[in-house]
Each structure stands twice: as C-alpha cells, then as structure tokens.
Task: inverse folding
C-alpha cells in the first residue's frame, strides 16, 4: 500500500484521542432524569446531586468520606491543607507527573521536592524517596499514573519510619486497588479528578477528596465552602455560616454531579472495556519495531487491581510518529513532554537536565494512544497499522 | 412562603439547558472546558464593557485570587479591604500570603468609607480592594484618586454589581481589574458556579488567562510558565450564559423597578426603626435589597409570619469571623458591627410578579416594633 493511500484510509477512519459522543445517547434518559430532578429542587451547585454523588462514590470506592470539589487540582490543595501542611514544609513528589502534583504543594504553602520515577510504572521510585527524606520533609505524594499504582507497601514503610504523611495523587486512579483498598485510601487521603477524559469523566471540571479520616473530611468540606463548617450541601442559607478558616470556593456543579452519577452506573463495564482495548494494543504492538516499551502491569506482593485510564507506550522518534499519526487523522497526546523539574515555573529550584534520567527519558519517548470505552477494536487496528507503517519506512521521510 | 432564594430561577430555560447539555456532550469537538462557547461568552461580555478583557473562571472568588496573583501581591503585603462583606474579600488576600487590613464602612450605604481606607494605609500597603455591597457601588472615584495618589494597586470586588454604572463607567472597570460572579442567585447567575475577571489592562488579562489554567500560555500544552491554578469555565455553562445574556438588561431593569417601588413604600418606616437603601440609579445594581432594622430578628420573624422569607447577609463583620480575627487585633469597626446587627435582605429577584412584590412591601410596612417609638428614635 502506498503512503498516500494509507494516509487516506487513516484520515477517513479518523480516530479522535477521546470521545464519549457515541455512547452518550444511551445514557441521556438517565441523565435527563437526574437533571429534571435537579431543576425541580433548584440548587444548582453544591446541591442535591453533589450530595448524592458523594454517597455513591463512598459506596463505590469504600471510602468513609468523599468530598466533592471543583477539580482534582483543588482537591489536592485542600487535602494538603487539611492534612496540616505548614509554610516551608517539604513534600516529596515525582518529577514525572501532571503539574498539579507539585503546584498544589506550592498553592498550599509548601515546597515540592522532586525525585525520579520507576521506569516501568512511571510512579515515584521508593529508593529515590529514601534518599531525599530530610529534616523538613513532612509529606510524600505518590502519584498513580496511567494504569497502575505506585509501590505503596514500600512508600508506606518509608513514611512510617520517618513520620511522613502520605497524600496520594490518585486523580487518575479510580478503580485501582491495593490489597482491595481503593487508591487514595492507603494514606491520609487521596483525590479523584473527573476531567472529561478520565475513567470517570464529567462534561466539565470536577474533582473529589477521598479519605477515611473524619477530621480531614470535615476540614476539606469547610475549605471548599469559604471555610464554613457544618452541613452546607443543598442549603442556600449556609452562605451566612461563620467563616472559621480562610477557605476557597471549590463547590461542584450539580450538572456535573448528575453526569457523574449517570456514568458511575457503567463504570465497571467501562473499565472492562478499557482493559480489552489495552490488551488489543498490546497484542498488535508487541512485535512492532520502534516500540521501546509497552505498558506493563508490575507484579507486587500485594494483590493489585490495575485500570487502564491511559495507554502509554514509549516509541523511537516519538514526535515524528505523532506527526505521522496526526496526518492520518489519529490523535495522540504526549503525557508529559517536560518533566516537572525542568518546568519554567520551578526554575528557582535549580534543577538541570540529567537530574532525573527516568523522568526525562519518559518525556522524550512516551506517547498516549486513544483509549476510551467508545473506541472500536477496529480503530485500535487502524492505529497499530499506522504505527507499524511508520516504522516500516512508509512514514519515516 | 415566598422564598428568599428562589429555586425556579431558570424555569423558562429548562428545555434550553437540557438541549445545551446534550448538544455539548455529543458535539464532534468533544470540548468541554475553555472552548468555543467560553470564547464567545468572553467576547460578548467584552462588548458590554467597551472592549475590556474578560477572562472566564470557575468562580468570582477564584477570579479575585487570580487578580491578586496577577498583580504580584503576596507575602509581606497588606491589602485594605472593607470590614463588612463576603469572606473572599479577606480569604483571597490570605490565600496569596498577604495580610488583610480592615476599614470600616459607611453607616447607611454599607460600602467602604474612603476616609477609613485612607487611615488604614500603612508602609506595607500594596493594594486597596473595595467591594460593591447589595445594591450600592463603593465610592470608586475617590478610591481611585486615593490609589493613584498613594501609588497603590486598585482591585474592585464587583462580584455583585454586573450591570451597574457609576458616572458613566461600568462596575468592574473602575479598578485595575474587577470580577463578576455567576453563582446562580447573582444578577447574571448561571446553572452552577462561575465568574470572570474584567480588566482594561493587557498584562493583567494575560496573567489571569495563564494563571486560570495551570500557568500555561494557551498555545503549548504542558509547559507551565507560572505556578497557576485550575479555575476554568465550562462549555455547558458558557453556552447557557450566552442564551441568558440578551435577557439580562430586562432582568436588571425589573430588579431596579422593584427596588424603586420598595423605596416608595418604605420611606416612612424610620420611626419604626427600619431604614431602606437610598433611591437612585447611578452606581446602583439591585442584586440584593437590604434593609437596616433596629429589631432585625423581630422583623424577620414577622415577615415569615406573613409569608415572606428573608436572609441575613454577613451576620458578623469580617474582622469578627474566627478565620480573620488574627488580622483584626485592636481594631474597631462600629458601622460594620451595626450593619451586621441590622441588615436584613428581602426578595428582589426579577421573576417576582407585582402581587408578590406588593406582598413583600405590605409585610414590611405591617411591621410592629416591640419597643416604643420614643425608644427607637432615641437610638
């Protein structure tokens, strides 16, 4: 097949990086029901559907407390504050993750300290953590990226030994479990992001804190509502409750809560579908030259439950491959093109290239392929064929 | 019972809202945050503000925080804020690491007293942050002159005042930057949370845009120039606001009409210990209509008996809130204390019909004080 013909096939197929449009119609009657109920009650943020969602997520995750907020980033900031982060406290975070893992520390008044990641799981490397614990280290924030959790047994053992609070950035980790315990509940608390492309995604920004600690839940609950304690959900009048602590406005929209309640009903099916698609990628890419690393769920002493939120593989000439796929109508995403220690906003921490080789290598080679429940197995085939074509020489001009 | 917070604000727009949700959910773009609807809303609002920049955010509170960050206000800085008002006036200052300094308010308009602001200015003061309160804009011409004179930044908490105009200049554009709130009960409330930064200053606008989305420049994803936040606005609500915008002027007009009627009806209630807000349209925006009543709790009780719900906004001055007491040692704010003891807000939303408006006015006018006229006048 000629390159031109191949491109034409790809472009005609067109594989978006994310879409939930096809399955939405099937969910619409349920969602419309939630929205109609919501409009009857008439409190459209921090209202009845947000309360319902919190209880449903508690049941789904097993968390004692789920506190709904405006975004996963806000969830991290409020969780760090509720865990007692003080100005100048250091929090160890991985160098390869989304910016919020570190910006949340700064926003909460602390200082991020970067360490390298494990090259297979892309999660904080416990050995690197052990070396960086110092006198001002107060917390450690493992991040569970893409399809599996950080090594929580070793991280928790280190944290116990050094009296560190474990705060999990489990924004991507809904459904992931460690010995049956949901991600986010292995330390003081964790977060969920409901950014639209997430395994459980809203149609806008939304997030949550999950914790088994009642005091943390109460504090986060107050911080999101201008520092007002008490049962503020679905109560207009609560805006005149006393401001006990300096808080923020991070109330969740009930429209988004209604979307999440609707999608939560099919979350198990969605997760199974993601696993099936990931397996298909794995089979088809196994012998493609140019593939440097396919996602591998690492065996642990603990029983773990992986969830394929992102299908992230490493490729030779990653940017050229992405351009080739884009020309064929296949959208991909680079998670993440630049490690946190080399971000302009953290220039004052004085890091340089070479400080965290695993993080830097991942940034050079990692590419996320389309993965979402609406994706057809045929589309996986199209994507893999294009990747193979690229390395067979057709796309290497 | 006539509610104070009406649950049926969007009764006529239900079908439109449902269609918007479905439309955004199934659109080929699959874009849900900071997309084409948000850009259109920002442009439409900019037109109502003489072409000023409009930056849509997750709330007016977060918008205020973005403005303070954009101005570089932080640790060691002081910001003069009113002693009577909503928590974000102080909490956003605390959030960026600065210190709020409280200035007392005017006894009857309840907005910050410029003389008190001037007295609160010290060597560490970096900014003044007045707020418009209930239906009245702060005395912006004087505050602007004061800020210029003393070389201070001027942030306008105009969260409640979208649509108000003072001396020909819209609320939000008197300061270097202002904000509007879209929380549902506001004059341009939406079906959830939201807000905007408004500013004529290119640099503040650019910084606010960057800071609302993790310090990214909007061109290169995952390069973070500054430590930012997530304070973005959703496509669904932007589309809904675009639908609601053409009706805004009429809704503001209806609020003003109700306020004018209340003003006429309440003119003679002083001897029963009830003061109505001053009449007029310049620098006014009737988001909340708040009476000052000597026997405030008794008034609320009697209104409820007559089927009218009311609400006490700000039952404590900001320096008396536990969260901010540490910034308030030794100060006194008698007018703010008085406002917190007396303010009572009554329904004024635009879909009140004339009979309901009369019911509210009748209920207020029927108020019987428990103390004698002489005792009231003595105070």
Result:
């Amino acid at each position: 097949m000629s390159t031109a013909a191949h491109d034409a096939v790809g472009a005609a197929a067109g594989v978006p990086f994310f879409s939930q449009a096809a399955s939405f119609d099937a969910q619409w009657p349920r969602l419309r029901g939630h929205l109609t109920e919501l409009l009857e009650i008439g409190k459209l943020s921090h209202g009845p559907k947000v309360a319902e969602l919190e209880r449903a997520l508690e049941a789904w995750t097993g968390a004692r407390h789920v506190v709904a907020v405006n975004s996963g980033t806000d969830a991290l900031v409020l969780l760090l504050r509720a865990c007692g982060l003080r100005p100048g406290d250091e929090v160890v975070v991985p160098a390869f993750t989304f910016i919020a893992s570190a910006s949340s520390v700064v926003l909460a008044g602390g200082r991020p300290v970067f360490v390298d990641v494990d090259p297979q799981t892309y999660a904080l490397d416990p050995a690197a953590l052990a070396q960086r614990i110092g006198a001002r280290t107060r917390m450690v924030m493992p991040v569970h990226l893409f399809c599996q959790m950080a090594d929580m047994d070793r991280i928790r053992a280190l944290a116990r030994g050094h009296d560190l609070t474990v705060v999990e950035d489990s924004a991507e980790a809904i459904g992931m479990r460690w010995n049956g315990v949901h991600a986010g509940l292995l330390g003081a608390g964790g977060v969920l992001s409901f950014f639209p492309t997430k395994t459980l995604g809203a149609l806008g920004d939304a997030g949550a804190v999950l914790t088994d600690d009642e005091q943390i839940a109460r504090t986060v609950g107050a911080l999101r509502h201008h520092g007002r304690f008490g049962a503020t959900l679905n109560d207009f009048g609560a805006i005149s409750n006393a401001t006990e602590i300096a808080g923020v406005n991070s109330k969740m929209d009930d429209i988004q809560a209604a979307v999440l309640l609707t999608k939560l009903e099919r979350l198990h099916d969605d997760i199974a579908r993601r696993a099936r698609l990931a397996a298909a990628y794995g089979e088809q890419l196994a012998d493609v030259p140019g593939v440097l690393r396919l996602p591998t769920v690492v065996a642990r002493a603990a029983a773990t439950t992986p969830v394929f939120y992102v299908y992230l593989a490493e490729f030779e000439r990653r940017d050229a491959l992405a351009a080739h796929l884009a020309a064929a109508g296949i959208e991909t995403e680079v998670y993440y093109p630049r490690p946190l220690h080399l971000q302009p906003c953290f220039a004052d921490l004085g890091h340089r290239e070479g400080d965290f080789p695993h993080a830097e290598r991942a940034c050079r080679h990692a590419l996320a392929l389309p993965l979402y429940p609406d994706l057809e197995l045929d589309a996986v085939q199209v994507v893999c064929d294009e990747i193979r074509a690229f390395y067979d020489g057709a796309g290497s001009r | 019972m006539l509610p104070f917070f009406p649950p049926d604000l969007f009764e006529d727009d239900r079908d439109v809202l449902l269609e918007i949700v479905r439309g955004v959910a199934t659109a080929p773009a699959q874009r849900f945050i900071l997309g084409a609807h948000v850009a259109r809303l920002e442009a439409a609002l900019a037109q109502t503000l003489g072409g000023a920049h409009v930056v849509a955010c997750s709330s007016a509170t977060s918008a205020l925080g973005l403005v303070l960050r954009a101005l570089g206000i932080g640790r060691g800085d002081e910001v003069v804020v009113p002693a009577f008002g909503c928590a974000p006036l102080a909490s956003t200052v605390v959030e960026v690491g600065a210190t709020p300094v409280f200035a007392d308010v005017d006894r009857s308009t309840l907005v910050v007293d410029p003389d008190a602001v001037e007295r609160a200015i010290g060597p560490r003061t970096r900014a003044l942050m007045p707020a418009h309160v209930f239906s009245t804009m702060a005395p912006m011409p004087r505050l602007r002159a004061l800020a210029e004179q003393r070389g201070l930044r001027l942030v306008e908490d105009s969260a409640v005042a979208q649509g108000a105009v003072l001396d020909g200049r819209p609320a939000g554009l008197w300061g270097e930057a202002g904000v509007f709130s879209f929380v549902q009960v506001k004059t341009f409330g939406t079906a959830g949370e939201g807000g905007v930064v408004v500013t004529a200053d290119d640099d503040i606008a650019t910084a606010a845009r960057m800071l609302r989305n993790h310090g990214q420049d909007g061109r290169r994803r995952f390069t973070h120039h500054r430590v930012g936040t997530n304070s973005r606005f959703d496509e669904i609500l932007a589309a809904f606001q675009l639908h609601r915008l053409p009706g805004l002027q009429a809704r503001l007009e209806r609020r003003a009409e109700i306020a004018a009627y209340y003003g006429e009806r309440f003119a003679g209630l002083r001897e029963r210990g009830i003061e109505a807000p001053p009449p007029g349209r310049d620098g006014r925006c009737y988001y909340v209509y708040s009476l000052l009543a000597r026997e405030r709790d008794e008034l609320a009780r009697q209104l409820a008996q007559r089927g009218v719900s009311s609400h006490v906004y700000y039952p404590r001055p900001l320096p008396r809130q536990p969260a901010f007491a540490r910034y308030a040692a030794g100060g006194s704010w008698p007018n703010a204390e008085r406002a917190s003891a007396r303010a009572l807000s009554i329904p004024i939303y635009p879909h009140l019909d004339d009979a309901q408006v009369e019911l509210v006015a009748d209920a207020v006018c029927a108020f019987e004080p428990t103390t004698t006229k002489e005792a009231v006048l003595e105070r």
